[in-house]
Every structure is written in C-alpha cells, then in structure tokens.
Design brief:
Blueprint (H helix, E strand, L loop, with lengths): L10 E6 L5 H13 L6 E7 L5 E4 L18 E4 L7 E3 L2 E9 L5 H21 L5 E2 L24 E3 L2 E10 L3 E9 L12 H5 L9 H12 L2 E4 L4 H15 L2 H4 L3
Parallel strand pairs: 1-2, 1-11, 3-4
Antiparallel strand pairs: 2-6, 3-5, 6-10, 7-8, 8-9, 9-10
Length: about 260
C-alpha cells in the first residue's frame, strides 16, 4: 500500500461519541468541518445512531424515500455529502477531518483510499476477506438504486460482492471531512443489505476490533493518537447547525 498521500500528521484526535440522533450526528460533523485544525492534526470521530435513521444524500429527491417502504418509520435526515441513502442502524459510522493545505486533488482522494485500505487490512486479521471495488459496472444516474449500499463506486469495500463500507467527502476551502459507514450486520429496516455478520458469520458489534483499526491508522500516518472532546464553541456551533439545518423540514425537503 502506498502510504505517501501528502497528508503529514503528527496527531489524530479521537472522538468516541455515545449513540445519538441523526440530526445531532450530522450537525457535529458539519461543526467539525467548520473548525480550525491545529497544524498537522486530524480528527477521527466514531459514532452510532439511536434511533435508527435514514440519511438521504445531499442531491437525492426527498420523494425517492417512498421507494423504500421498509425504512419509512425510521427517522430521516439529509446529509451535506452526496451519494445514495444510508440506513444507519446496525453499523459504525466514522468521520475523518483533515487539512488540505498544499494537497492536490489526487492526494485528497488518496486519503479516501487509505482509510478504506486500513479497514481491509484489519478485516483480514479477523478472517474477513474484504476487497476494494476497482471496476464497478456503469449505471445511468437516473437508474441508480436508492440505497448507497446497493450502488458501486471505485474504492468501496466489498465482501462476497456485497458492499460493507462506503464513504463520501465534503470539502471547504482548507479542509475535508470524510465520513463513511461500516455495515456490521443486517437491519430490519433494510433487509436487502447483508452485513459482515450475515456474510461471514463474524459479529463485530462489540467494537473490540476498533483498537486494531486505530493502531493501523497510527501506523499508516505515522502519528500519535489521543482522546478529544469537542470544545464549548464547537458544541454551541453544532447546536446552531442542528436547529438551522438538520431539524429544519425545509432542509430535508429542499430537493
């Protein structure tokens, strides 16, 4: 694996949040993107969702939700990143915030690949033979499935041809927030999507494996890792974003 992606880090700040609502999870990610990172520092946030929540991609039409009846009773938010809808239930979500100063587009895309490569490496130590999607079939945009995990893009993580990790990036002028979903097991609200448990009978729900992933990331980026809690200003900003955007019906129904 090529580890020279142009992202030079001395530290990753780890945020491990308790499961919470979709509106708050999305607001915190947006607040982090608006934060100013110390030099050579990234933030890795790990979080889950309660209750289960469907997140629409930024460009998805809200009426498309009617095409997926099994998730109709779940909460619903619209992400600020693109892609298909994700049912956040039996999964782990991560977000990774890093500075893009002096990085090319290719290097920024390389970070996306490194995160997925790190997960593939850890899965292999757990006897989960995940691979990266390299040459997905071409699909007309209008015919793409509603759910992100039924779509295929280069870099997706696959297990027995089923997607188990998908990510997206959102950028501002100086930083990128990459967030993604790791499908641990099947949800009753999206029964068409098998998770790692159904595909290879390995239950990762306890998250005991996450420590191995953190060590892998430290090795890849050759940096230290320390625990981090959002500042008062970051939390205050997140509350404002949640009220203005993710709890606002106009944001959800904007498309």
């Amino acid at each position: 694996m090529d580890r020279d992606c142009g992202l030079n880090l001395t530290s990753i700040l780890l945020v491990e949040d308790e499961p919470t609502t979709g509106s708050w999870n999305m607001a915190v990610d947006d607040a982090l993107l608006d934060s100013v990172l110390p030099e050579q520092t990234a933030i890795l946030r790990l979080y889950r969702w309660t209750p289960a929540c469907l997140s629409l991609g930024y460009f998805q039409a809200s009426e498309k939700r009617e095409s997926h009846p099994s998730s109709k009773k779940s909460d619903c938010v619209r992400r600020a990143s693109g892609g298909g809808a994700i049912l956040h239930d039996q999964e782990l979500t991560y977000s990774f915030l890093f500075s893009t100063r002096e990085m090319t587009n290719a290097q920024i895309n390389g970070v996306y690949d490194l995160i997925h490569d790190s997960l593939i490496n850890v899965f292999k130590t757990l006897d989960i033979p995940a691979i990266k999607c390299v040459d997905p079939p071409k699909t007309d945009r209008e015919q793409e499935p509603f759910l992100c995990f039924l779509r295929r893009s280069p870099g997706d993580v696959l297990l027995k041809n089923a997607k188990i990790v998908g990510s997206a990036q959102r950028r501002n002028k100086t930083q990128v927030l990459q967030h993604g979903s790791i499908l641990l097991k099947q949800s009753n609200l999206a029964p068409e999507l098998p998770g790692i448990l159904e595909l290879c009978n390995i239950d990762l729900d306890s998250l005991n494996w996450v420590g191995k992933w953190l060590e892998e990331l430290k090795s890849i980026f050759q940096c230290q890792l320390s625990n981090y809690s959002l500042t008062h200003e970051q939390l205050k900003h997140a509350h404002k974003i949640e009220a203005r955007r993710f709890l606002n019906p106009d944001w959800l129904l904007k498309r």
